[in-house]
Design goal:
Largest sheet: 12 strands, mixed
CATH architecture of the largest domain: 3-Layer(aba) Sandwich
Oligomer: single chain
Distance between the termini: 76 Å
Structural class: alpha+beta
Number of domains: 5
Shape: elongated
CATH class of the largest domain: Alpha Beta
Length: about 725
């Protein structure tokens, strides 16, 4: 908030566009802050000369404004002049309720000696951008109060291009090429802000160059609410402390890497509303959303009365949709650009959001562009099971494996799709209660998500696979950046002969040619009886719990043979923090997910690593989360009968009759002359390459669509 006594060079403009019919005053906490200040010397005589060009305020509107200030406990300024020294000063006063044309204002602090030989010239009402100048007609004045007759008209005098607001409890850090200072945020506008800063011990303002960029961090209760490169517009003189006016150096910046085709932004009727407590002002703000996507949204606000500044971080921002649906996120202002008719357009990016709210947002946005697509929406379980069987996902051999545990499978899926736990997400294409496309993902390791299922079938003559995949890509493009999602890696098991995933997943790995970004490992699948008797290991052989030393040896072997990412997602240090572990999360939500490592050694030499995975029955219908993953470090030095004996000692924890073994390298069982059933490719991607993956998928979908068009044209020509 500016005060008329604070002269700032080059700042005087007449606010010709001020709306007399709606005078807005911001006296929030003004009384508390200003009562601590001494009377100010009035340094804006130029304001008094601007009344001829100023807009006028009628008396009745002035009375309403004064009563509003009294209601909020605010203050107004008395402009006084000392008759002897001819010095002009400002003193804050508390206005009393005003019924007619007489107003009483009480002095807000002890002013003994200050009021002597002073006469009142004006009342000044400051709103952060303009000043209402009220010519004084004094009825009486003493040490407690002053009584004034209000004139028929008063004047609105503008001064700033954007409204400035008083700020509280926001700490500031200023950094410039080794110079460091700390301080507080004093006031703020959408285009600039003022801080009071003091150099850190051993630093001096003589090191500060106002002509060079400076990095500013602002904190609310030690939580960052602004970070940006700024320029110093002006500063006071002083070596111990300075008041400095800063402005963001850029009116726009990019938070994440740009992609060639960003997620579509949609306009909705009625438009959503964003609501948040402004981090600088501690007041609630509500603004209509102009357009929105799963990664951000834009709004319009008045250029001279805005609240958003590029770089500002807003925690706890809520987006409210019609129908009482709302989501909450942490957002950051990316840009503030000039719009039409005195407006500015501000863009905000979503920095974080929990999976439940992200699912709601994705579902709303997706259904605007395609009403058949449902993201994390309710699913009719009978329709889902019909889809699984009809599309061949549950084929005869798989059904033979699970039929004895049908009730447990059904209960697991009922809990997943009804309770929507935060480790699970899904998307469907539905019409009239029937499912035509489905995809789902689980968080299966601390910071790794696994694609569980992806399939589609025609809706009459209409194909739904590509539209569903397009929305899944858009969904992924928003979520992999969100810290709450805990997605450092993404993985997917699929059969090499399955054309669709081999094109859209395997193809990306082969095109990228960087296994540290996206790896593709071939495993051999073999079903293994879990009820077999335990077989002892020969002398010299041992099966022991995994150690850090064993992991280092396993990692060296894997990186030499593959160079991929499997050891990264299995690392014992992945996700180590004070937060809730994945096993605890599953348990809290009524599910099971755990894994344990074992080392198979010959005379203390590591020969294989066995990873026992456990989950609820049917959590993965191929039961790849209920089985043993085996990494064989010495193909020739580990006979199958030794490995078989080790496995027999680990399978007692499983409830099903047969469990899957996934063996790497895939050549091991052939080398040992052991039969096996099929191969699986394990695709793992580092989420840091999400941008490249999204662009690859978008390009492939375009090519696939073009291929389908050409195919249909050829069929028509043949007919």
């Amino acid at each position: 908030m500016f005060h008329p006594c604070q002269a700032e060079e080059g700042d005087v403009v007449i606010n010709k566009s001020a709306q007399v019919s709606s005078i807005k005053v911001e006296p929030h906490k003004q009384k508390e802050a200003e009562s601590l200040q001494p009377p100010w010397v009035f340094g804006h005589q130029d304001l008094l000369k601007a009344t001829k060009k100023a807009q006028k305020v009628k008396q009745k509107n002035l009375i309403n404004t004064i009563n509003y200030i009294h209601f909020l406990g605010g203050t107004v300024f008395a402009h006084l002049r000392n008759r002897k020294s001819q010095e002009d000063i400002l003193v804050s006063t508390s206005p009393q309720p005003c019924l007619e044309d007489i107003i009483t204002c009480r002095w807000t602090k002890e002013l003994t000696g200050v009021l002597e030989d002073c006469e009142l010239l004006h009342l000044l009402i400051v709103d952060g951008q303009s000043v209402i100048l009220v010519p004084a007609d004094v009825k009486s004045m003493d040490s407690d109060s002053i009584v004034i007759h209000l004139p028929d008209v008063c004047y609105i005098l503008g001064k700033r291009q954007a409204k400035r607001y008083l700020c509280f409890d926001i700490s500031a850090e200023l950094i410039q090429s080794g110079f460091f200072a700390k301080g507080d945020l004093l006031d703020f506008s959408p285009v600039a802000f003022r801080i009071k800063a003091t150099p850190a011990p051993g630093h001096s303002f003589q090191w500060f160059n106002p002509e060079q960029p400076v990095t500013i961090h602002l904190f609310q209760n030690q939580r960052m609410v602004f970070s940006g490169t700024c320029r110093c517009i002006r500063q006071t003189v002083g070596l111990e402390s300075r008041k400095m006016v800063m402005a963001p150096k850029m009116d726009r910046f990019s938070r994440f890497q740009k992609i060639s085709n960003r997620n579509p932004r949609v306009q909705m009727k009625p438009p959503p509303l964003i609501a948040f407590e402004h981090p600088f002002l501690k007041k609630m703000i509500q603004i209509e959303v102009r357009n929105i996507s799963t990664s951000g949204f834009s709004i319009l606000e008045k250029a001279d009365e805005g609240f958003l500044m590029p770089g500002m971080i807003i925690p706890g921002l809520s987006v409210h949709f019609a129908g009482a649906v709302s989501v909450t996120c942490t957002a950051q202002v990316l840009y503030r650009l000039k719009g039409a008719k005195g407006s500015v357009r501000c863009g905000l990016v979503i920095l974080d959001m929990d999976i439940t709210d992200y699912g709601k947002l994705s579902n709303i946005v997706s259904r605007v562009t395609n009403p058949l697509i449902r993201i994390t929406d309710d699913v009719d379980m009978d329709a889902l099971w019909e889809f699984f069987f009809n599309t061949g996902f549950i084929y005869p051999k798989k059904y033979d494996l699970i039929k004895s545990y049908r009730d447990e499978f059904e209960e697991t899926y009922r809990k997943l799709y009804k309770n929507k736990p935060e480790f699970f997400t899904h998307a469907t294409c539905q019409k009239d209660g029937q499912i035509y496309g489905h995809a789902s993902m689980f968080r299966v390791y601390e910071r790794t998500w696994m694609v569980h299922h992806m399939a589609a079938r025609p809706m009459g003559k209409k194909r739904v696979g590509l539209p569903l995949l397009r929305h899944i890509v858009q969904y992924f493009d928003g979520l992999y950046r969100l810290p709450s999602f805990k997605m450092d890696y993404m993985m997917f098991y699929f059969r090499p002969e399955n054309t669709f995933p081999n094109l859209f997943f395997g193809g990306f790995s082969r095109d990228l040619k960087n296994p540290r970004a996206c790896s593709l490992d071939l495993f051999t699948y073999k079903s293994y009886p879990s009820r077999s008797p335990q077989l002892p290991l020969p002398e010299r052989w041992s099966l022991v719990e995994f150690s850090g030393r064993d992991f280092a040896e396993m990692e060296r072997f894997y990186k030499a043979h593959s160079g991929g990412l499997l050891s990264d997602i299995l690392s014992p240090t992945q996700g180590v923090s004070s937060e809730e572990s994945l096993e605890m999360l599953y348990r809290r939500l009524g599910f099971i997910r755990r894994w344990k490592f074992y080392s198979l050694k010959d005379n203390e030499q590591l020969k294989a690593v066995l990873i026992v995975n456990q989950s609820d029955l049917g959590l993965n219908l191929s039961e790849l989360l209920n089985g043993v993953k085996i990494l064989v470090l010495d193909t020739a030095g580990l006979p199958w009968d030794i490995l078989n004996s080790a496995l027999s000692q680990l399978t007692g924890v499983f409830k099903i009759d047969k469990i899957p073994l996934l063996v790497y390298p895939a050549t091991y069982l052939d080398f040992q002359g052991v039969s096996w059933e099929k191969h699986y490719l394990l695709w793992i991607m580092d989420a840091q390459y999400g941008k490249e993956y999204v662009e690859y998928m978008q390009n492939k979908m375009k090519l696939k669509f073009q291929f389908l068009v050409k195919y249909l044209i050829k069929k028509l020509i043949k007919k």
